[in-house]
Design a protein that fits this description.
heterodimer, A: alpha/beta, Rossmann fold, 6-stranded mixed β-sheet, 4-stranded antiparallel β-sheet, 9 helices, globular, B: mainly alpha, D-Maltodextrin-Binding Protein, domain 2, 4-stranded mixed β-sheet, 16 helices, 4 strands
């Protein structure tokens, strides 16, 4: 369970202060998939970075399973599985070694790491590549490795920043099934996307962000009802105020 | 602590699988330095021996003005040659090392008991190559002059000793090891530089490189403390530098006994014990270098930027060596606390086989470790910055 309240974050640049996140509140429940939808530059990545404690918010609070991230970031990180926007893997290590490295950093025992790796390799269908060095992996294989690495410690909450970026149709479909499986296991899944169809197909709850603010929040039906649009894409455009930055 | 070990082990595995890096930094680097050193030393020794023992070839201009001198030189085993018409040009063009010019007035002056002029024409800027030859020529002329002078005094019924009121003799107390120390003054620089920048690749690759490959952000999202992650990377970098240093020292221990330095009255004896002591002297420098490189990599916005900073670091260990070259001073204890200078002096002491007290050991190593700790703390602070992980 992730609870975000009134999050603010500003960056000073040469041209002035940019309010990347300007008052974002939402909650992502266990056993649900929550989608953070917004055009490029809406503040999704910055909001997620604060969630997984890479950045400290200027204002506002974040609770992971009731733990205040500002007070105990380490405990919060233990409960989070994170696939950041930056998802580089170590190309001279095998897929399995990449996963094990993160397992050890989570303080897991070797037998536990092996057990979890086998489970994830099976779930993500990467048996063929598990013992290969990741140099020369396809984008999809790299993303799978990064996801397995993020989930090795069996986290209750899973945060994925644009997980389908650069993936082909088949891999995207497989990934969707995997996210549904995580939901079925009772986890709290939060992912960001700028692709409306993807969010519509998958999410129990949609949080639409534009210009650093939450402009709409609810299930697909609720959004359609609130905006008075039958089509979700039109509802989305109406919610963010323009079609700019979509796709 | 476990996180430090995990990161350390991963970074070393990662580096050792990078075959090219391992080849250049662990094979070429450690072997090339000592081999170059050995080759240079052998060349210097053989040249010096050659110049001191070879039959002296001496072009003489105006030999006809002093047939006695020329005949005497030939009796001393000198191979007297005709000098070219333009002596100065031959010396300037470095065709000849030295020419003896006998003045046309030599015979007249000689007969009148005035000092007769001979010129030893040479180029002092080439003393490195020609010094031994010129010294031999001057010594021969001086010896001839002394002989003739004594004979003139005897002919006048004066004892020759009257004209030598003072006898000067030299006693050189330098040990063969110390004399070789003069020759090995560049050895500390090679070793210090190796220890200091041996961590370069690993330190830069594991921070600036990792950020550019976009894997630093997920790494920092794990529960491992940032200071622990940084320390693991630093330890891996330092380990790599120390492995390279150990190989360098091993190469020196193996190659140096083969050098013919005893022929010029020097003794280079870098045994295993001296090598181990040098290793101990350089451990703090390796830690300091790894910490400094980690700090720079964390500070720089890109790998490229980090590289341009590190090229400046090459100059750092050179400074004390340069200062000592220009102004060779006796080692004071406080100098051992100055980074690079201290290590330089300690290594020279080891080369010269001097005894080193516990205080000196303590200062040299303690100061180095303290410095490394300070830079480590700075690097840990820098690692906590928000911008660290974000590459774009």
């Amino acid at each position: 369970m992730l609870v975000v309240e009134n999050l603010h974050k500003a960056f000073r640049t040469k041209t002035g202060t940019v309010r990347a996140v300007d008052g974002v509140s939402f909650r992502a429940a266990d056993g649900e998939i929550t989608g953070l939808l917004g055009p490029n530059g809406a503040g999704k990545t910055t909001a997620l970075r604060m969630l997984y404690t890479l950045m400290a918010p200027d204002q506002g609070s974040i609770r992971v399973d009731g733990i205040d991230v500002a007070k105990d970031p380490t405990a919060a990180r233990r409960r989070l599985g994170v696939l950041p926007d930056a998802r580089g893997i170590y190309k001279r290590l095998t897929c399995r070694e990449n996963i094990a490295y993160f397992g050890r950093l989570h303080g897991m025992a070797e037998t536990e790491i092996a057990r979890r790796t086998d489970a994830l390799v099976a779930a993500l269908d990467m048996g063929e590549i598990a013992d290969r060095r990741t140099e020369g992996f396809s984008q999809g294989q790299r993303t799978k490795t990064a996801i397995a690495r993020a989930l090795v410690h069996d986290p209750k909450n899973v945060i994925l920043d644009e997980p389908t970026n650069g993936l082909d149709v088949m891999t995207t479909r497989a990934l969707r099934e995997f996210l549904k499986r995580l939901r079925a296991e009772g986890r709290c899944v939060l992912f960001s996307s700028h692709v409306m169809q993807e969010v519509a197909a998958l999410c129990d709850r949609i949080v639409i962000i534009a210009h650093g603010r939450v402009v709409a929040n609810g299930s697909a039906e609720e959004l359609r009802a609130a905006t008075g649009e039958a089509n979700l894409e039109d509802a989305f455009v109406k919610a963010i105020g323009s079609a700019e930055g979509l796709h | 602590m476990r996180a430090i070990l995990t990161v350390w082990a991963k970074e070393l595995v990662d580096t050792f699988r990078d075959r090219r890096t391992v080849l250049t930094s662990l094979l070429m680097g450690p072997l090339l330095g000592p081999l170059l050193l050995a080759a240079m030393l052998s060349m210097m020794v053989s040249q010096q021996v050659d110049r001191a023992e070879r039959r002296l070839e001496l072009p003489v201009a105006g030999a006809e003005h002093a047939p006695n001198l020329v005949a005497w030189l030939e009796r001393q085993g000198v191979d007297v040659k005709d000098a070219p018409a333009d002596v100065d040009r031959a010396i300037r063009r470095q065709d000849l090392d030295v020419v003896l010019v006998i003045a046309p007035a030599f015979a007249d002056d000689w007969r009148a008991n005035r000092p007769a002029l001979v010129e030893v024409v040479h180029d002092a800027s080439r003393a490195q190559q020609t010094g031994v030859t010129i010294a031999r020529v001057k010594a021969l002329i001086a010896q001839y002059g002394a002989e003739i002078g004594s004979m003139r005094l005897v002919a006048r019924g004066v004892h020759p000793a009257v004209s030598s009121p003072i006898a000067v003799a030299e006693r050189d107390l330098s040990t063969p090891e110390a004399r070789s120390g003069m020759m090995l003054s560049f050895l500390p620089y090679i070793l210090i530089l190796g220890a200091f920048l041996g961590a370069m690749h690993v330190a830069m690759d594991s921070t600036a490189g990792e950020r550019e490959r976009q894997s630093l952000e997920p790494l920092l999202a794990t529960p491992a403390a940032r200071a622990a992650i940084m320390s693991g990377k630093l330890a891996a970098a330092a380990s790599f530098a120390l492995i390279a240093l150990a190989l360098t020292l091993a190469a020196i221990v193996v190659t140096f006994p083969w050098m013919p330095t005893d022929k010029i009255g020097m003794k280079i004896d870098l045994g295993v014990v001296a090598a181990l002591r040098m290793f101990a002297v350089l451990v703090p420098i390796a830690l300091f270098g790894a910490a400094l490189l980690t700090l720079i990599s964390a500070y720089a916005k890109s790998y490229k930027e980090a590289q341009s900073y590190t090229s400046l670091l090459l100059l750092l260990p050179m400074i004390p060596t340069m200062v000592l070259l220009v102004n060779p001073v006796k080692t004071e204890v406080w100098m051992l606390a100055v980074p690079f200078l201290g290590q330089n002096q300690m290594i020279m002491k080891l080369v010269r086989a001097e005894t080193i007290g516990a205080l000196e050991w303590g200062i040299a190593i303690g100061a180095g470790l303290a410095l490394a700790a300070v830079v480590w703390a700075l690097a840990a602070r820098l690692y906590r910055r928000e911008q660290l992980a974000i590459s774009a």
